[in-house]
Write a structure and sequence with these properties.
Length: about 425
């Protein structure tokens, strides 16, 4: 039985390296612990990010094998063998799957293993068990000997394979008895090429600011203009941010290095800045942003709002898009697939990743609250500006009449991370 609560199924329109590794490593740990159903779910989730990754698929096949889903394990393993025809672990696992299913063609991949690796003891053991099942005992015993059946008890090399081979050779395994336990092998493909990312995350050095832009003027910056990094190195380690407060409540954004800004906040441009509607996302976020590049910049305005900067350094941050001025184009972004309650709100959150600056439009300086497994948060959706770390955001109810939160759904935030709320 599964030990982890089921998680909602999510789509992944582009490759997300951090989440991919999270699910892959969780699945491998569950597999090691014998939590095969949990492992299967984690590998299925990782497969959403890399549909043809060999390590994900081979581990998923192992989970299916242990759960008794032999047809699915066979299908996945055969698929991997198309591009890894001489993989000894994959060939052995296919033979073991077919042997466990009682299929007569099980010997074919195992004989192939022995041609590639003549000393493969588990292949000898499994071939011996097949021959024994067929009543060809002399041939079976030769394979049991190659697997270690003649080794002495409780000496070096007296391992599980040896003990299973010894028991089989002494005829304690009857033809109609359940197949002895032979474990499949892990297929390691870390040295081979990974499936390419559909939207690769590549660090990029920010170019210098365009000297044609006037310097920012902020004699009395509002509290919201202070930049507070959620985590990682100090902002001073990053290039100068492209977004800066100007007099009159304007925000000037330098487009030289590439920026993405909210269309509704645009009020002008400087120099020769090229503006292109962004078509990365669909649905309610289609053409919500504008990508600006070139020698110049854009002017952004949000009445009665100030600028608040958050600096990311190879980090994730999920944000309310309606409260953004914009962000550096070095950051990759997509609709946040974890925002399962999106039907209750006007816009889904946007998930950002990478190194760069995120510019928020806020009435005051946001508060940062830490979230731990022992201290989950419950708050109104209208207060939630952004969140980061390994947290889950769930819908609690449409509104909390006791707290008079109103204005949208009430959310529960749990896990390990932080939230930024506008107070």
């Amino acid at each position: 039985m599964s030990s982890r609560a089921s998680e909602p199924s999510r789509s992944a329109p582009f490759f997300d390296h951090g989440l991919f590794l999270l699910h892959l490593n969780r699945g491998k740990e569950d597999l090691r612990k014998g939590l095969y159903d949990d492992a299967r779910r984690e590998f299925e989730e990782a497969r959403r990010f890399r549909a043809t990754d060999p390590e994900v698929l081979s581990n998923l096949a192992l989970a299916m094998f242990h759960m008794g889903h032999l047809e699915e394990a066979e299908r996945i393993t055969r698929g991997l063998l198309v591009s890894h025809a001489d993989s000894v672990p994959l060939l052995f696992n296919l033979g073991l799957i077919l042997f466990k299913a009682g299929r007569p063609e099980a010997r074919e991949p195992l004989e192939r293993v022995l041609s590639l690796a003549p000393g493969h003891r588990k292949a000898h053991l499994t071939v011996g068990l097949i021959l024994q099942r067929e009543g060809r005992l002399d041939q079976a015993n030769r394979h049991f000997t190659a697997a270690g059946s003649d080794r002495k008890v409780e000496v070096d090399g007296d391992d599980t394979i040896t003990r299973t081979a010894r028991a089989a050779a002494s005829n304690r395994t009857a033809p109609d008895a359940p197949a002895p336990t032979v474990k499949p092998e892990t297929f390691g493909d870390a040295s081979g090429p990974r499936e390419p990312a559909t939207q690769p995350i590549v660090p990029r050095v920010e170019p210098p600011r365009d000297s044609s832009l006037p310097p920012p003027v902020a004699p009395h910056p509002p509290p919201a203009s202070r930049a507070v990094p959620p985590a990682g190195p100090a902002p001073s380690a990053l290039p100068a941010p492209a977004f800066a407060s100007r007099s009159g409540g304007l925000v000037a954004a330098d487009a030289k290095g590439g920026i993405v800004v909210r269309r509704a906040a645009l009020t002008g441009r400087t120099g020769v800045a090229e503006l292109v509607a962004d078509d990365t996302m669909g649905g309610s976020l289609a053409r919500f942003f504008v990508r600006a590049t070139g020698s110049g910049g854009v002017l952004l305005l949000e009445p009665k709002k100030g600028l608040h900067l958050v600096h990311l350094r190879n980090e994730f941050l999920s944000v309310d898009p309606s409260r953004l001025y914009g962000f550096d184009a070095t950051l990759t972004y997509r609709e946040d697939p974890a925002f399962e309650f999106r039907r209750q709100i006007a816009l889904p959150f946007v998930k950002l990743y990478g190194t760069g600056t995120v510019a928020f439009s806020t009435a005051g300086e946001p508060a940062r609250l830490e979230v731990t497994p022992e201290t989950p948060l419950t708050l109104s959706s209208r207060s939630l500006l952004a969140y980061g770390g390994d947290v889950a955001v769930d819908l609690v109810e449409d509104a909390d009449p006791l707290a008079d939160l109103g204005g949208g759904p009430v959310l529960s935030v749990s896990g390990s991370g932080f939230v930024l709320i506008e107070v």
